[in-house]
Specification:
binds zinc ion
């Protein structure tokens, strides 16, 4: 008989700890008093798309999954840009996400819709008191860099700098001078350009945790509820290929086939071509064409029998064990 699933006890949010999160959601309403210009809406769209890239390429593919390599200074830039979204520290984000993969759709999963329901998986776990701390042991590979730990602790520095810059820019474009920051000219850009895009980004990211574990198609037997959806993939620059990703999480691409649009991956290829990042991890052929891990092991044997690897000599470095498609 299958063992009954016993959910963990998860505590309810404490309102006074969540005032800032609530206020961020209310800030766009400030535009009722300031109005909003065409420029403000353009900033909103730009900051959504631009920062979604850093959520997926930074928080997710780099810090949580190490799906490519880069230099120490650019790694800091990645963390800083990701954190302009106000989704807490890069190490906090990645540590919790590693936990999610390890315990996907089991009671230990921080945000399983199957176990804890839609609202909890979407936002309840964020506002609840149970997942506030960073478990540095889980993210020790990056916690060894003091600058990343500093940024993780002072996670509001990047969004604050961006908010000030956006307000000054709005004051300049809408009103003619950056000194008009505290008039409608600057504040309207702050409310719509910065805060509205931040709120939409929250729910774009959260929807991967909630609805991408329920709605969509499942190509691979990933032993969890993860799904693929072209719509979410378009809205989140590639994160909607969530079943692919759960099946083979280390790949830099989440759209595994050419028709699976993954804009983050195309931009990562661009960054690789100019030398800012390297070693983008691909998807091995036996993974790509398999149904589940057992099938993948059979395919791997088959492919290796068809293309035996050359004998290893001392002078020639052996090729990596896994045949990878172009990455
Ligand atoms: Zn992941
Ligand atoms: Zn997931």
């Amino acid at each position: 008989m299958a063992q009954a699933v016993v959910p963990e006890v998860r505590r309810k949010p404490v309102l006074k700890q969540e005032i800032a999160f609530l206020l961020i959601h209310l800030m766009p309403l400030g535009a009722i008093w300031t109005g909003a210009t065409f420029f403000d809406w353009m900033v909103c769209i730009f900051l959504y798309v631009f920062r979604m890239f850093w959520v997926t390429a930074g928080y997710h593919r780099y810090f949580a999954h190490r799906s490519y390599s880069t230099s120490r200074w650019f790694q800091f830039v990645i963390a800083f840009m990701a954190q302009t979204t106000a989704q807490k520290g890069a190490l906090w984000w990645a540590a919790h996400h590693r936990h999610h993969h390890r315990h996907s759709d089991t009671p230990a999963d921080p945000h399983s819709m199957k176990i804890y329901g839609f609202w909890y998986s979407h936002v309840g776990w964020i506002v609840g008191p149970d997942f506030k701390e960073t478990d540095y042991k889980v993210i020790g590979d990056y916690a060894k860099y003091p600058e990343l730990v500093w940024l993780n602790k002072h996670y509001l520095v990047p969004p604050t700098i961006l908010a000030i810059a956006v307000t000054a820019l709005g004051a300049w474009v809408n009103g003619g001078s950056p000194l008009l920051m505290f008039t409608s000219a600057g504040l309207s850009t702050l409310f719509i350009g910065f805060f509205l895009s931040t709120v939409i980004l929250y729910h774009g990211t959260f929807s991967i945790n909630s609805i991408m574990h329920k709605f969509g198609t499942q190509r691979y037997e990933s032993n969890d509820e993860s799904r693929n959806s072209i719509w979410l993939a378009l809205l989140t620059l590639g994160e909607g290929w969530h079943n692919n990703h759960h099946y083979y999480e280390v790949a830099a691409r989440q759209g595994f086939f050419w028709w699976e649009i993954d804009i983050t991956y195309y931009i990562l290829k661009g960054l690789q071509s100019v030398g800012l990042i390297w070693d983008l991890k691909g998807v091995p052929k036996h993974i790509l064409h398999s149904k589940n891990k057992k099938h993948a092991a059979e395919l791997r044997k088959q492919y290796e029998a068809q293309n035996p690897r050359p004998p290893v000599s001392k002078e020639i470095k052996p090729k990596p064990a896994e045949e990878t498609i172009e990455a």
